[in-house]
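# step 3/5: fold
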Amino acid sequence: MKSRAAVTVGDREIELRTVAVPDRPPRGGALLRVTANGLCGSDYDLYSGHLREASPGLVPLPLVSGHEMVGVLERVDPEAAEKWAVSPGDRVVVDPAVRCGQCLDCRSTTDNRCRDLLRYSTMPLSRGSGLWGGNAEYMELLPGTLVVPVPDALSDEDAALYNPLGNAIHWLVTVAAVRPGDSVLILGAGQRGFACSAVAHNAGAARVIVTGLERDQVKAPLLARFGADTLLDAESADTVAQVMDLTGGAGVDVVVDTVPGTATSTRDGLACLRRGGRMVVAGIKSGAMDGLDINAITLRELVVRGVFGSSTFGVRRAVQMLTEARYPFAELHSHRFALEDLDEALRVLGGEVPGERPLHLTIVP
């Protein structure tokens, strides 16, 4: 059997290839028929070359990208069927992080600190079948993979939001420990900003502030339905001044920085925290952070934590939260593309196509 796969071979270079599908899944693993794969900012960073520039060695090319997979289990090794409690024909989402389950970090935590962590969408084509990403018709699943069954009530596109939502749950609930009454500042009004807004609101935050660019201001009505109280324009006005004005100079309890690339948002986020506040920094940044007063972290007793991905709890809870349908996640879907149009989809995602307003994009093989 063969699978079409969109292979990233270089910066802004994607080739549609035919790749042989293994006759049987790996021991303890499975073969997934991909029905949808969501795209996020890190996919554009890989496509544009920014990710490899910022983190050399993280993504060896060529490879099959895609880390927000929804699909049907076509073949399941008996060991995996028992361990994962699944059967062939089950529709599932796939956590992109593959943990060894044996190291000290795996035994002591459920997030992504595994010393031998593997990630789908970052493994090279030269490894085994090469089908290690969601931008293909089929992909292999390794032992240690977390798969979560998808209820019939969820469409493939809705289910594909498990990744940004699972991230938000991990960042805000597990890491930042948002509590009822907290004030939360979310830097960035993309799909991760929407997901973080919903999670903060769902956790009982008393005030949710989101920042975006001037072009993001049209999202304000929809963001309000995801629990946001205010959408600030961080492009035409000073973020720190606006937040301090809203909070009477006190600052906020929690900041989540979802902005990719620039470290300026991180600097501003730190300045917006109240004494003893907590900050979560997500995404890969480039360059140094100019103007950071490092002593402010010590003197104001701030807590700053970097995050990279989600957690077992985050992924499972995301599927539950999508099924509960308290927030209009289906309205985030802005674009659907075929596998052969991945290059165009990534240019739309990156804001390179005039007139397009991307939010959540899905590849349907």
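# step 4/5: annotate
The first helix runs from residue 41 to 48.
# step 5/5: archive (pending)
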